[in-house]
Amino acid sequence: MSAVRETGTYLDRILAQTAIDMDARRKHTSVDVLRERAGHAPAPADVRAALRRDTIAIIAEIKKASPSKGTFPVEIDPAKVAREYIEGGVAAISCLTDEPFFKGSLADLEAVTGVASAVNAPVPVLRKDFVIDTYQIDEARACGASLVLLIVAALDDRELRDYREYAEALGMAALVEIHDAEESRRAVASGANLIGINNRNLRTFEVDLANTERLAPDLPDEAIVVGESGIFTFDHVARLAGAGIDAVLVGESLILQDDRARAVRDIAGVPRVR
Predict the structure, then answer these.
(1) What's the whole-number mean pLDDT along residues 258-268?
(2) What is the DSSP string of 122-181?
(3) Using one digit for the tens of pLDDT, what is the confidence trace for 118-142?
(4) What CATH code is carried by the domain that includes residue 48?
(5) Which parts of 63-143 are beta strand (E)?
(6) Dihedral angle at the C-alpha atoms of 54, 244, 194, 72, nearest 10 degrees?
(7) Which residues constitute the domain of residue 97?
């Protein structure tokens, strides 16, 4: 089984299951097959161009459940939700592919990238999962994703750099996620230039927008900075804009709405400060 890094948090349980599930998939689908599929997948969209705009870019997330909330009480058709998000003007879409804890799948990702690549200006799609091996990056590209999530807490320094460079070699980008100042230092040292600040404490599950306010000002000017978790309103986006972020990743507050396109528009339009 693939080796995983222990964090001393709930994340360890997810990473252990991720390794089991990935090894099972690898027995059935080789890297060579994934790379052949990638040749027929939608080309990666330009992530930096999508997220660098005059207003705070909205990355809207498609997820069906979470460890803290369980299965959401709404019917979620990933392709339909993607169309609603795009109608609302999102800069990018995040799609959960973890099945045991978030009820997602690679089929969901393919459905979303199919929609996102068919519009006049293709919308980047993030494969949001717990990457612990380049195999998962190949899967993401084979499904048409434009970027992958790399969680600093889950990876060592060599993996952080190697996985980002591997994704970039495939024409993709990597959103490198941090939770604290030490992880921020490691992300920057790894060469990351797209950095997400998660406001959720991995040990307590508490969410505090002040985490982004603490960490964002110390990140390099050239980095694209994304605020993640706990963002529900226009005022929340405006608050984080003051810390110098470029984008927000928003999930639960959008996926639960009846009119998702309007919900996106309701939090959009906040001027980018830096």
Answers:
(1) 97
(2) PPPEEEES---SHHHHHHHHHTT-SEEEEEGGGS-HHHHHHHHHHHHHTT-EEEEEE-SH
(3) 998 899 999 999 999 999 999 999 9
(4) 3.20.20.70
(5) 65-66, 70-71, 92-96, 125-128
(6) -90
(7) 11-267
